[in-house]
């Protein structure tokens, strides 16, 4: 009824992310990983809008949807923590976990922007194209200030 939660790409893409071999930038690599995950998601803006209306009308469904998205968020956070630990093996676990959660939440904020813009446009472009635009816009806002 509410749709499937996003899924991470296959293990080879996850390994490349953790090893930092895509762009060398944690945030850019995470953006690409999330864009890749979106390509495996349903791409019907009308259905997304209907589901959004349903969740607004029945708040108890919102809690169910958030629980499934939280699981995806936790998976992403664990991957980001692996990457941060690989990049900085001397960092304390609590510090790594805190940084990983922050990076993930920022990326998920950009994703929410993309989903909202994509649904509002009626899916004029694909979701992955909108994600790319939203991450590019975010980069334009913060410039090279992203250092994780």
Walkthrough of the structure:
The structure is a single chain. The chain has 148 residues and is mostly helical. Helix content is 73%, strand content 0%. It has 6 helices and no strands. The N and C termini lie far apart (37 Å).
Question: Sheet bearing the most strands, described?
Answer: none
C-alpha termini separation: 37 Å
> Helix fraction?
over 70%
Number of strands: 0
Low-pLDDT residue spans: none
Beta percentage is under 5%
Number of helices: 6
If you average the pLDDT, what whole number results? Answer: 83
SSE succession: HHHHHH
SSE diagram, text form:
Elements: H1 11-19, H2 26-38, H3 45-57, H4 59-87, H5 93-120, H6 127-142
Helix pairs in contact: 1-4, 2-5, 2-6, 3-4, 4-5, 5-6
Keywords summarizing the entry:
148 residues, mainly alpha, 6 helices, 73% helix, 0% strand
What's this, in brief?
With 148 residues, the chain is mainly alpha-helical. Helices cover 73% and strands 0% of the residues. It is built from six helices and no strands.
